[in-house]
Amino acid sequence: MRRSTPILALTLAAFALAASMGAAAPVKPAASPRVAPRAAASDTAIFAGGCFWCMQTQFEHLPGVTAVISGYTGGTKPHPTYEEVCSHTTGHLEAVEVAFDPAIVSYEQLLTRFWYSIDPTQADGQFADVGESYQTAIFARNAAQKRAALASKDALARSGRLHGRIATTVRDAGAFWPAEDYHQDYWRKSPGNYRAYRSGSGRDQRLSRVWGKDAAKPLVH
Questions:
Q1: How confident is the model at residue 148 (pLDDT cuts 50, 70, 90)?
Q2: Contact 139, 74 (CB under 8 A)
Q3: Are 176 and 97 in contact (CB under 8 A)?
């Protein structure tokens, strides 16, 4: 029996309504806000401790240290070359710029490692390297670093551990000029020359005499 047109129309409308309700897309839950990863905090310390080839290996791979760059600082000549600095006429010292995360290693801890990496009583250079460019210094980048460096130096002087006056100076940091590319990570680029130089300089032997078991050993070879 055929349905009458009005009834059929109503029936089809009902099916269409039911189908549209059943096919409705599910509501998506609200997306959680994206949180950007926290960037590692960064600070910089500058130390002059004689030959920068050797000083770089004192801080490379230290937990919390993110980069170590060899360079020149303390003088007035812009863009100095290695030959100019070695002439001891620029006022610059060989130094390392140490980038670090203070949440992992503090500036005070870096100061301690610096002291144990040098002979603070040698005024004319470091170990076999004699001359202005090899003298030792801490270059403070701000007032907090300067206070920490001076306090550290004073505590060391009062400790009685050293047989002589501390020659290491604490200075305000100025421009730091990165050294030529071949000096960067010299221990990796020329391991044989680096080891021969380090051994011949007498650095590790002197550090053992000055600091005993506390003498800082290079973290890379």
A1: very high
A2: yes
A3: yes
Residues annotated as part of the active site: 51
Q: Has residue 81 got a pLDDT over 90?
A: yes
> Rounded to an integer, what distance in angstroms lies between the CA atom of residue 171 and that of residue 174?
9
Q: What is the 3-state secondary structure (H, E, C) of 83-123?
A: HHHHCCCCCCEEEEEEEECCCCCCHHHHHHHHHCCCCCCCC
The C-alpha atoms of residue 121 and residue 166 are separated, in whole angstroms, by 5
- Average the pLDDT over 208-213 and give the result: 96
Tell me the two tokens of residue 114: 């610096």
User: How confident is the model at residue 40, as a pLDDT?
Assistant: 57
**What is the average pLDDT across 189-202?**
94
Alpha-carbon distance of 153 to 111, in angstroms, equals 9
* 3-state helix, strand and coil shares in percent for the chain, rounded to the nearest 5: 40, 20, 40
Q: And the tokens for 79?
A: 């863009």
Q: Which residues pair with 68 in a beta bridge?
A: 98
Alpha carbon distance 185, 46 (integer Å)? 17
Quick one: pLDDT at residue 41? 61
Query: Which of the four CATH numbers 3.30.1060.10, 3.40.50.510, 3.30.565.10, 3.40.50.1820 does domain 43-213 have?
Result: 3.30.1060.10
Residue 5 has pLDDT above 50, yes or no: no
**How many of the other CB atoms lie within 10 Å of CB of 62?**
19
pTM for the predicted model, two decimal places: 0.81
CB 53 within 8 A of CB 197: yes
